[in-house]
Amino acid sequence: MDICIKTISPSVATYNELRKKVGWGNTSPEQAKTALNNSLFHVIAISNEEVIGMARVIGDGAMFFYIQDLVVDPSFQRKGVGGMLMQKIESYLVKSALPGVTIGLLSAKGKENFYQRYGYNVRDGSLLGLGMCKFIE
Hints:
4 helices, alpha+beta, 137 residues, 5-stranded mixed β-sheet
């Protein structure tokens, strides 16, 4: 399998299509466009001229960075694509994140081990709390 990694944004349509393939629901084209435009860093994986994976980094670009929307088309999962995307993200963060910076992410349930390979820790509540989020319906 020949995979090309590029540090560019996916199109709005591709972004929404990949999110839908993994069950993350619908996002309006306007929301998707704004989200993509306001991201700090993008990376996509391409196979046979089709985008099969994506990820982005969001945040303030100084103190806080968040890995967001790391998505791989289910038919290409468990083939190293997510790792390729994470390697590009980690390369970006090494250059952009100074000492004292916080890098966060929200892992999909069951994917925590994937991120632990890159040095991310599960928040067990003992030191920093468990972490929280709120979804607007």
